[in-house]
Amino acid sequence: MKTHHHTMISWHLVQERFRAILLFILFHFLFAPIVGTAQDNDSKAPYGTYLGRRIAPAMTHLAADWLIRGDRESEEDPDRLLSHLDLKPGLLVCDMGCGNGFYSLKIAKAIGPEGRVLAVDIQPEMLQLLSRRSIEANVENIDMILGTTTDPKLPDNKVDLVLMVDVYHEFSDPKSMLEKIRKSLKPTGKIALVEFREEDASVPIRPEHKMSKRQILKEYEANGFQLLSQYDGLPWQHLMFLGPKD
Q1: Secondary structure letter of residue 114 according to DSSP
Q2: 6, 176, 210, 238: least surrounded by Cβ within 10 Å?
Q3: Which helix (H) or strand (E) holds 196?
């Protein structure tokens, strides 16, 4: 009986250690691309580069809770960000890379029932999470769109604003995506681009998940966009408004 009991305890310890190792691996691979620091080693990047910038891996739906973490309010000040988007009732706004809808739900309330949010993501699991959250919040003016890595599936010449919060740097095909987004905008439409500041070493985000203003302008100007305005008052991020050159 003692031997059996000792064996049971040993097996229990093995299971606990296995669980701990598994949790460590999950945290490393799901969250390490987003938070913390790491060397910007191009030899470790299977995602390619664009105009000299290493393209970052996209966050999966398994880490979606990070998008609604409690610290996000203090780290990003989303209310201040939204106050600079000039949201009005009746607008058609795209939340590009919407995830589980952190911004989609806020925008939907700001533009009222006469407005629509086009919530785009390439992961159906993210859209399912957003669907559940919108039902819980009793929000009905969100259209969920399953896009691809080359096409967000937006209507042509209809969109007033495309909001991209910490997502553009993960586009595996930026050129194709910007071409489609440009076609979707009204003549007065614009992009609100939000990216963690590469220029600020105190922002605790991995280098491949940051962008400098210089790199942003380099990529957008190469794809027919121009800088309209910018806001530098967010805690960790750039907020830049870009529109078609013509």
Answers
A1: T
A2: 6
A3: strand 185-197
CA atoms within 13 A on the CB side of 98: 34
* β-bridge mates for residue 237, sequence order: 196
DSSP 205: B
Kindly state the tokens that stand for 246: 């013509």
Tell me the per-residue pLDDT of 114-163, one tens digit each, with 9 for 90 and over: 999 999 999 999 999 999 999 999 999 999 999 999 999 999 999 999 99
Tokens of 112: 């009222």
Residue type, 2: K
CA 145 to each of CA 75, 121, 165, 179: distance values in angstroms, whole numbers, following the listed order: 28, 7, 17, 18
In sequence order, which residues have a C-beta less than 8 Å from that of residue 207 and are 6 or more positions away? 37, 38, 39, 40, 198
Tens of pLDDT, residue by residue over 58-114, are 888 887 786 777 788 888 999 999 999 999 999 999 999 999 999 999 999 999 999
What crossing angle do the helices spanning 102-111 and 124-136 adopt, rounded to 10°?
Answer: 50
Question: What dotted CATH number matches 32-244?
Answer: 3.40.50.150
Which neighbouring-strand residues pair with 165?
A: 194
Pairwise CA distance, residues 187 & 170, whole Å:
27
Q: What is the C-alpha to C-alpha distance for residues 165 and 162, in angstroms, rounded to an integer?
A: 10
DSSP H helical ranges for the chain: 2-31, 72-76, 78-83, 102-111, 124-136, 174-184, 213-221
| β-pairing verdict for 185-197 and 159-165 | parallel
Q: Residue 211: what residue type?
A: M
CA 30 to centroid of chain Cα atoms: 14
How many C-beta atoms surround the C-beta of residue 226 within 10 A? Answer: 12
